[in-house]
Sequence to fold (116 residues):
Amino acid sequence: MIIKYTGREITMDWAYTNPFTGYVYFSNLKIYEQKSLLTGHPGDSVFLSASSVSLDFAMLKLFSKTYEISEITLTHPRGIVIQDKEDFNFNDLIDKFLRRRIPARLLNRFILIFST
Fold:
């Protein structure tokens, strides 16, 4: 179950993958807020949603155990960012997936490229 890996409920209408090209597609993707630490239940509000999400993985890099997304496209994305003092509602995802792989000096930097 996805909650086991992310701490968040993730739903979609359907998914498609092509293991030869590295293409992955999700229809009507919804990622909910982190599960409550008090009750242990998943959050009931949507953190991020998109009518579709497509990704292209660099397949040859998988042989060297490197996971690289060469392209990601979100159609009609909607996200909610909440800040409580120094904490954001996505800090758990950064801690889980990035902190152990990215040097601390680079954690506050990211590059986001928009294209039309």
